[in-house]
Amino acid sequence: MPTLAWLNKCGMVDHMNKKDLQDDVDEDYFSQHPNLLPRMRSVLLDWLMEVCEAYKMHRETYYLAVNYIDRYLSRTKSVAKNQLQLIGTYTYFYLTVFSRLLSC
């Protein structure tokens, strides 16, 4: 992977850690999503775990993806159930690319 001059790894990680401490997940976020059930989240996370194992990804990436998915669902309203897998896939892809950028 090429080195990116504009990427300040330490500053970006520090900023993300501060944001993580500020952002809490609303424990009752399913009340904002009438089309989703907790079981659907469970199926999504099982599928993401299978993807993680199949492609030999870092377990930390999986846990971050779960956190990002929960935070996203906590801040949005009325996500359609056909978009849930897309949200999970995008989150996992984003974190995979991001972790590769930081590991250079």
What does this structure look like?
The protein is mainly α. The chain has a single domain, classed as Orthogonal Bundle (Cyclin A, domain 1), CATH 1.10.472. It has four helices and no strands. The protein has helices at 9-22, 38-54, 59-75, 84-103. Helix 2 (38-54) packs parallel to helix 4 and helix 3 (59-75) packs across helix 4 (84-103). The protein starts with 8 loop residues before the first helix and ends with a helix.
Q: Strand fraction band?
A: under 5%
Tally of distinct domains: 1
Distance between the termini: 7 Å
Q: Round the Cα radius of gyration to an integer and report it.
A: 15 Å
Name the features.
4 helices, Cyclin A, domain 1, single chain, mainly alpha, globular, 104 residues
Could you give the topology of this structure?
Elements: H1 9-22, H2 38-54, H3 59-75, H4 84-103
Short description:
By secondary structure, this protein is mainly α.
